[in-house]
């Protein structure tokens, strides 16, 4: 394939490949409760994509009007991770394997781009989605200075794939992730797999919005075909 014709899919993990956000939000709420903070569970869906540190900082600033001590942040995030491990089950998102296979058979590069650094989930990718991502084709919280909504994670993903951002599709389920994808200059698809209303994704400028992963997987062959036809 002509290198100029190459394209890539930059794919988020939680809420896209795994139906894991319900456990993450519960773990966040429970951890904050242990620190005396009563934060509604759904609020954490809005912070999705941010690093754990950024999320804690934002809440601390909001509750107490000051920065959180780094040692405290570390303890809180560690506790959230512990609770998530107790609660979390690995549930693959229905339709995600079909989506990945469609990109693969079309010859598109695939890069995993996640705000998570949780080894327990990252390790599962290869056994749950064998061959879906090439060796080293992942950007995690450990690889970036700024998490989403900064474009940095998606720019790094495009660079790993060796494909210009405007020739990449970002697949996201979180408004801040959509903001990051758009800021990176990618065609950004939102799949609303959680309780966040469609309007939140429209506000962030999502290029396309699907109600679930199966719906996106159904539309993907047609979408790929029309994108590839455009560039001929
Ligand atoms: Ca996500």
Fold and architecture overview:
This protein is α/β, with parallel strands linked by helices. The chain has 2 domains: 3-19 and 91-230, HAD superfamily/HAD-like (Rossmann fold, 3-Layer(aba) Sandwich), CATH 3.40.50; 21-86, DNA polymerase, domain 1. 48% of the residues lie in helices and 10% in strands. It has 10 helices and 6 strands; from the N terminus they run E-H-H-H-H-H-E-H-E-H-E-H-E-H-E-H. It has helices at 21-34, 43-46, 52-64, 70-87, 96-105, 119-128, 152-161, 175-183, 198-203, 213-230, and strands spanning 8-11, 109-113, 138-139, 168-172, 187-191, 208-210. The chain has a 6-stranded parallel beta sheet with strand order 3-2-1-4-5-6. Helix 1 crosses helix 4 (70-87). The chain is globular and about 55 Å long. The two termini are 13 Å apart. The relative contact order is 0.18. The mean pLDDT is 93. Calcium ion binds next to loops.
Labels describing this entry:
alpha/beta, six-stranded parallel sheet, 10 helices, binds calcium ion
Low-pLDDT stretches are none
Number of strands: 6
Q: What's the overall average pLDDT, rounded? A: 93
The CATH homologous superfamily of the largest domain is called HAD superfamily/HAD-like
CATH topology of the largest domain: Rossmann fold
Distance from first to last alpha carbon: 13 Å
Layout: helices, strands, pairs:
Elements: E1 8-11, H1 21-34, H2 43-46, H3 52-64, H4 70-87, H5 96-105, E2 109-113, H6 119-128, E3 138-139, H7 152-161, E4 168-172, H8 175-183, E5 187-191, H9 198-203, E6 208-210, H10 213-230
Parallel strand pairs: 1-2, 1-4, 2-3, 4-5, 5-6
Helix pairs in contact: 1-4, 3-4, 5-10
The protein binds calcium ion.
Calcium ion binds next to loops.
């Amino acid at each position: 394939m002509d290198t100029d014709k190459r394209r890539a899919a930059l794919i988020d993990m939680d809420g896209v490949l795994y139906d894991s956000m319900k456990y993450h939000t519960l773990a966040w709420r429970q951890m904050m409760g242990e620190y005396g903070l009563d934060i509604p569970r759904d609020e954490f869906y809005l912070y999705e994509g941010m690093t754990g540190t950024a999320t804690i900082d934002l809440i601390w600033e909001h509750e107490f009007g000051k920065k959180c001590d780094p040692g405290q942040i570390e303890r809180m995030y560690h506790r959230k991770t512990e609770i998530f491990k107790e609660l979390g089950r690995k549930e693959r998102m229905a339709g995600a394997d079909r989506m990945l296979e469609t990109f693969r058979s079309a010859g598109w590069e695939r890069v995993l781009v996640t705000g998570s650094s949780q080894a327990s989930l990252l390790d599962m990718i290869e056994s749950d989605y064998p061959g879906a991502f090439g060796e080293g084709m992942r950007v995690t919280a450990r690889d970036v200075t700024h998490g989403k909504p900064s474009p940095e994670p998606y720019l790094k993903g495009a660079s790993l794939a060796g494909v210009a951002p405007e020739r990449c599709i970002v697949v996201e389920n979180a408004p801040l992730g959509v903001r990051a994808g758009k800021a990176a200059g990618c065609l950004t698809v939102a799949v609303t797999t959680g309780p966040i209303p469609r309007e939140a994704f429209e506000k962030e400028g999502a290029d396309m919005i699907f109600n679930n992963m199966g719906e996106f997987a159904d539309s993907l062959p047609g979408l790929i075909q029309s994108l590839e036809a455009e560039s001929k």
